[in-house]
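Deliverable D5.2: sample structural annotation.
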Amino acid sequence: MTKLDWLTARPVAHRGLHDMNHQVWENTLSAFSRAIEQGFSIECDLHYAADAVPVVFHDDDMERLLKIKGDVRTKSSAELGLLAVGGTKDHVPTLRQLLDLAKGKVPLVLELKGRKDDDEGFAASVLDVLEGYQGHVALMSFDVWLLKELKELDSPWPVGLTAEGTRPEDFFAHDEAMHYGLDFISYCNAHLPNSFITAQRQRGIPVITWTVRDEAAKRHSDENADQITFEGFDPRTSAAA
């Protein structure tokens, strides 16, 4: 076994095991609880709240998820914790609340949603919250400057590139990012196969895909990568999730 076998050992629930935002919404403690109960790894998104606390939220704007206009980063974690996600009983959780729920029961794959020139302290704050956590965690981002910072801070957790693209210039940029010593890749399933991913897998770099929503997409991922990030179906039964 290698040090990252746990990352590819089980399917990864995209933003938790939600039901496509009908009753159980993405990136909520309810979605994370369902994933834990079913034994899936959890992928989720982190933003940097106004009080320098990492919160679990995907969008820059709050309208889709919270029904109010405005930038999520203008709110403190306490303010966000009072806002209902999709009109449900769930509120915006902090990273700390996710860790307290997960307690190492399933792996966590955390995507940092960066803001160029506005990320001072974000990477360090995530590492601070994770300090002492007993469980498997991986950190990833589209934002190469955040990955670089995580590596410069000697992250004890694996650091990976979230990426997409099919053009040679995309692959060149991805190769440049890998020079920081990244540990894994999360790649758009629809953009596989490609020469960049083939070369990285030949180097032994684990590759997970996003976002797989049906059995046909799962078969495609299985042929070209090591594990899926999924939503909307149960990859073990091909039934609706």
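Annotation notes: Residues 5-230 form a domain with the TIM Barrel fold (CATH 3.20.20.190). The longest strand covers residues 41-48.
The annotation will be released with the project's public dataset once the embargo ends.
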